[in-house]
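Box 3.1 A note on notation
Throughout this textbook, protein chains are presented in two layers. The first layer is the amino acid sequence; the second is a token string describing backbone geometry. Keep the layers aligned when reading.
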Amino acid sequence: MKIGIVGLNFDELMILIKEINVQAIYVTDTYPQNFSGKLVKEIKLFYPRVNDEECIRCASCFASCIDRALVWTPHGGPRAIPQLCSGCKACYYACKGVTSAIKEDVQRGGLLYNQGNVYVLVSDYQKMSTAFAKVISNFDNVVFSVPLDKGNLASHADKAFCARQCNWLSYPVLSLNELKRVIRKEFGNREYF
């Protein structure tokens, strides 16, 4: 089984991996300097493609876009700005309830690297939480040591885990030693530890 550890800086994560036999994921927008992992896969995310002939200009997609990634063109319907779109699919589902003018396309969400028990997800900030939710859903258990009100990685992971009914634990920011105690307490009696 995989236990994802989220919320440590890269150096702390490497210490934890050496001391406790867990697989961990580090999410960043730049490749870590002290890491020589191999590319495992490219994370692909949803990207909206609007069919102008089916679009009735109802603006339900525009209203649902939390990223503000949709703009109106002078002679057609909405268009997505790739740099702003996180791939969350809110516009797709809003449109699907009306006309289904938004079709699914793909965009790069990030790159996943692996070296031993460490996974590194490199993604630009806008797509990070959606790419993270796709990656973290492959872990059986996840321990978050990040404040839930900081960023939205935890909320996206929450949605991914609710869908799979997996275990995930969230704690306020913990020191490395506190996090080790939590992991041992919660998962210490399992065979993969």
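The domain at 44-107 is CATH 3.30.70.20 (Alpha-Beta Plaits). The first strand starts at residue 3 and ends at 6.
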